[in-house]
Design a protein that fits this description.
Layout lengths: L14 H17 L14 E5 L3 H13 L4 E5 L4 E3 L4 H5 L9 E3 H4 L5 E3 L3 E5 L4 E4 L4 E3 L2 E4 L4 E2 L17 E2 L5 H17 L2 E6 L10 H14 L7 E6 L9 H13 L2 E4 L2 E7 L4 E6 L4 E5 L2 E3 L4 E2 L2 H4 L15 E2 L13 E3 L4 E2 L6 H19 L12 E8 L2 E7 L19 H19 L4
Parallel strand pairs: 1-2, 1-9, 2-5, 9-21, 11-18, 12-13, 12-18, 13-14, 20-22
Antiparallel strand pairs: 3-4, 6-7, 7-8, 10-19, 15-16, 16-17, 23-24
Bound molecules: flavin-adenine dinucleotide.
The site of flavin-adenine dinucleotide has 36 residues, from α2, α3, α9 and β23.
Length: 444
């Protein structure tokens, strides 16, 4: 692990505040009801959770405590669990990739039946899911927590296999590809000149801040070099915003301007020619623009997995039609199938797709699922809370927290959500992974 960060000159948060931050994080964990103390419910039925990632595992661990008489099955073909919020740190050369890996089995409660398979078809009218093993799984209640699908093939000439060759990086893949992304940045910098080209997708993506973080950490690395002026940094944006919330959108744009980043609005990445190191972008009027690069950070379009998109569970109309799971954004219950709930990256809602959102959605799904199982109306409401430590350079970050409508929802009175600080960097670097694992365990 090579840490190049420095706290010099960053933020106004004192060591005392940092201690408070640690205590606050501890307090959050301590205040949460310990496993087994939550009220149990004598409801019966077969609950199927599809997806054993951040949301599915956390929910399973909570439900087994609440429902001693229910049967719970979880479906996921993946045996490895990846701590995805660490991918940007690996791709920036700051963390070892091994720090991200654990096993799915490690987190699953022993009383839950794990089907190691993928859902290939959702048939909600029949209350069943078809699995990749050929098994047809019937359910009384379904929770869709599949995360999202990264659609590499929507960029001509690009696939996950391209990551780590010809100067191409992508932080939305495996830990191994995050390592290779860092190697591509290193190799570009060792060449001593050329363009670093960063992109954004035209769809909702998970952790909307991650593409910005990759640009910021790369800028820090360049600025530590005596030959910074020999490198160009470009950021191509499909629209004219780099972040959904006005304050941060303006902040990032102004900061990049001061750092010499050349921004190109209304440019969507449509093709990559790795051997010739050229990226092609399409402007809104259809004009194609080609950019030479030394390093290219690709952010592909994303959607719900095809099995979900092809099913009746998908939104039929509105901005999420055909691509994302239809749920009520407050109760997380499907709007047409009341026995179905959704959570995490797969849902179509105006929410940032983060593990922090998942942490707030899981208790809402838990309460509302239990209500529906008892013949009651769902009462718990998700307020759209999401949070992301927006890294603005190696050693500094801003704690971005907001809910539906872009309302800022700061958690810590001593952290100004509009200021960069070293304390928030430390939070990202040291504190969030233990909090994430406590969430998986159903403890917070
Ligand atoms: C680069 C990067 C940086 C990030 N940074 C942050 C951050 O700083 N802070 C933050 O809070 N969040 C961050 N996130 C986002 C966070 O990791 C996700 O929002 C979170 O993991 C979503 O949880 P989920 O359960 O919806 O999906 P996942 O955790 O992705 O889990 C989905 C699971 O579903 C399984 N699955 C998929 N399809 C099927 C199927 N058909 N059948 C069965 N199972 C299926 C998958 O194998 C997977 O195990 C980041 C993500 C990335 C990629």
């Amino acid at each position: 692990m090579t840490k190049t960060g420095s706290k010099a000159g960053v933020g106004q948060v004192s060591r005392r505040d940092l201690v408070k931050l640690g205590m606050a994080a501890g307090a959050v964990a301590a205040m949460a009801p310990a496993k087994g103390l939550a009220r149990t419910v004598n409801a019966r039925g077969h609950i199927v959770i599809v997806g054993a990632g951040a949301g599915g595992i956390s929910l399973a661990n909570r439900l087994v405590q609440r429902l001693p008489n229910a049967r719970i099955t979880i479906v996921d073909g993946g045996a490895r669990h990846v701590y995805q919020p660490g991918l940007t740190l690996v791709a920036s050369g700051l963390w070892a990739s091994s720090k991200l890996n654990s096993t799915t089995q490690n987190w699953l409660p022993s009383t839950v039946d794990w089907k190691q398979a993928y859902a290939e078809a959702f048939e909600p009218d029949l209350k069943q899911v078809r699995l990749s093993t050929g098994e047809v799984l019937s359910y009384d209640f379904l929770v869709v927590a599949t995360g999202l699908q990264v659609n590499y093939d929507e960029i001509e000439g690009f696939s996950a296999n391209e990551i780590g060759s010809n100067g191409i990086g992508c932080v939305y893949d495996t830990p191994e590809h995050a390592v290779k992304t860092n190697q591509m940045i290193e190799q570009w910098m060792q060449r001593g000149e050329g363009a670093g080209v960063f992109t954004l997708a035209p769809t909702p993506i998970k952790c909307a801040g991650a593409p910005l973080k990759m640009c910021f950490t790369t800028l820090s690395r360049l600025e530590a070099r005596p030959d910074r002026d020999r490198f160009d940094v470009h950021f191509y944006v499909p629209g004219d915003r780099v972040f959904g919330i006005d304050y941060y959108n303006t902040f990032v744009k102004e900061r990049w301007q001061s750092q010499g980043v050349i921004r190109h609005d209304f440019h969507r990445l449509v093709a990559v020619d790795g051997p010739n190191r050229k990226a092609t972008f399409q402007q809104t009027d259809g004009t194609l623009v080609t950019q030479d690069y030394g390093f290219l950070h690709v952010v592909p379009p994303m959607s719900a997995p095809d099995a979900l998109r092809d099913s009746d569970l998908v939104w039929w109309e509105g901005p999420f039609a055909g691509n994302w799971l239809e749920v009520d954004q407050h109760t997380m219950q499907h709007r047409r199938y009341p026995e179905v709930f959704g959570l995490g990256d797969v849902i179509g809602a105006p929410v940032n797709k983060t593990a922090a959102s998942v942490k707030m959605q899981v208790p809402v799904v838990e309460e509302n699922l239990l209500a529906v199982m008892q013949g009651q109306a769902p009462q718990a409401q998700h307020n759209g809370y999401t949070s992301c430590p927006l890294i603005t350079g190696i050693g500094k970050a801003m704690l971005v927290e907001f809910g539906y409508g872009g309302v800022l929802l700061p958690s810590f009175p001593f952290i100004d959500p509009k200021e960069e600080s070293w304390a928030v960097w430390i939070m990202k670097d040291r504190m969030l992974q233990p909090a994430y694992y406590a969430m998986l365990d159903g403890k917070i």
